[in-house]
């Protein structure tokens, strides 16, 4: 399902409001079953940024694997990064008694990825372009990445209406799943 232009604007705007620690940002999301599936369209909006990240990654540019293999592995990796977490987190939400908030959480989770990419991509470009001294670039990269994790933590907490510790656990789960997917992908293109 493809969202309308208005739904896309609302999704991104809701994510932007949440980035400003405005809980009211959740009100811009369509948390219906249809809105749930439409929120995965955010993957299409994030894909160009992901492609740039892949092209700037020394592991990709230094790979001896053929182009077709690199494209297939990164396409699979990207697809998994959008689908594995929602599948795994559903029973966790049910076990926490938050199954009714699951759809809204995933809708928010998907749309915030657009804002996260918009914030993180310029940093990666700066780091890759060696615009700043190495230590400053590394610090900037780490700081922005940490801020994006805090943003994700806030959205998780608000969308599921849960305490800080379970929210931290869900963000950590997403982080570790991302690491596992990345490590497997890099292992396949070496």
Written overview of the protein:
This protein is mainly alpha-helical and 190 residues long. It has eight helices and no strands. Helix 1 packs across helix 6, helix 3 runs parallel beside helix 6 and helix 6 runs antiparallel to helix 7.
Write the layout of secondary structure elements.
Elements: H1 5-19, H2 33-38, H3 42-56, H4 58-61, H5 67-95, H6 102-128, H7 134-160, H8 164-189
Summarize the structure.
This protein is mainly alpha-helical and 190 residues long.
- Helix/strand/pairing category: mainly alpha
Beta-strand residue percentage: under 5%
The dominant shape is globular
What number is the mean pLDDT? 94
> How many strand elements?
0
**Helical stretch tally:** 8
Overall helicity: over 70%
Q: Please give the largest β-sheet.
A: none
Overall radius of gyration = 17 Å
H/E order of the elements? Answer: HHHHHHHH
Note poorly predicted spans: none
Key words describing this protein structure:
190 residues; mainly alpha; 8 helices; globular
């Amino acid at each position: 399902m493809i969202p309308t232009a208005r739904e896309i604007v609302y999704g991104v705007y809701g994510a932007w409001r949440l980035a400003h620690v405005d809980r009211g940002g959740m009100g811009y999301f369509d948390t219906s079953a249809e809105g749930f599936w439409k929120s995965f369209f955010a993957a299409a909006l994030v894909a160009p940024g992901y492609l740039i990240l892949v092209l700037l990654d020394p592991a990709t540019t230094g790979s001896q694997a053929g182009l077709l293999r690199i494209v297939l592995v990164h396409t699979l990796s990207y697809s998994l990064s959008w689908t594995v977490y929602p599948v795994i987190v559903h029973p966790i939400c049910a076990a926490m008694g938050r199954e009714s908030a699951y759809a809204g959480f995933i809708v928010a989770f998907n749309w915030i990825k657009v804002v996260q990419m918009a914030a993180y991509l310029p940093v990666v470009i700066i780091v890759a372009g060696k615009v700043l001294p190495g230590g400053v670039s590394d610090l900037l990269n780490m700081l922005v990445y940490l801020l994006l994790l805090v943003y994700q933590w806030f959205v998780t907490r608000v969308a599921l209406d849960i305490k800080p510790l379970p929210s931290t656990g869900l963000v950590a789960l997403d982080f570790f799943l991302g690491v596992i997917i990345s490590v497997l992908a890099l292992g396949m293109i070496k």
